[in-house]
Automatic annotation (TrEMBL):
Location in or out of the cell: Cytoplasm
Matching InterPro entries: KH_dom-like_a/b, RbfA, RbfA_dom_sf, Ribosome-bd_factorA_CS
Family membership: Belongs to the RbfA family.
Primary location group: cytoplasm
Gene that this polypeptide is encoded by: rbfA
Keyword Cytoplasm: yes
Protein name, as recorded: Ribosome-binding factor A
Length: 130
């Protein structure tokens, strides 16, 4: 019988919970602000972990890059905290990556809403003329 979840997925979920908690409680840099940890992918040998994050309230790319640089600089500190929290043989090296999927999703949703509103206004105008 095959396993339902891979071990890398389970470790990624545990890392996501642990890292999001430590960022909220231990990192005190105001350049970061509020961080959403969207996903964590772990390599098969558990040597590296990519943490996909978005920043709430950061609108420009420069602010996001600065916050991402702060997180990557603090990755060693966060790795130490994760090693104490989780019982893993090797704690993966953490690499933070800015996740643009939510931003792009919001842009696409706005475009769709605008197109639907334009279409409705054209049909209303056509109905009034007839």
């Amino acid at each position: 019988m095959a396993r339902e979840f891979k071990r890398t997925d389970r470790v990624g979920d545990a890392l996501q919970r642990s890292i999001s908690q430590f960022i909220q409680q231990e990192i005190r840099d105001p350049r970061i602000g509020m961080v959403n940890v969207n996903d964590v992918t772990v390599t098969r040998d558990f040597a590296y972990a990519k943490i996909f994050v978005t920043f709430v309230g950061r609108e420009t790319d420069e602010e996001c890059k600065a916050a991402l640089a702060v997180l990557n600089k603090a990755s060693g500190f966060l790795r130490t905290l994760v090693a104490k929290d989780l019982d893993l043989r090797t704690t993966p090296r953490l690499q933070f990556v800015y996740d643009t999927t939510t931003v792009r999703g919001n842009q696409l949703a706005n475009l769709i809403e605008r197109a639907v509103a334009d279409d409705k206004s054209k049909h209303v105008d056509d109905d009034i003329e007839q």
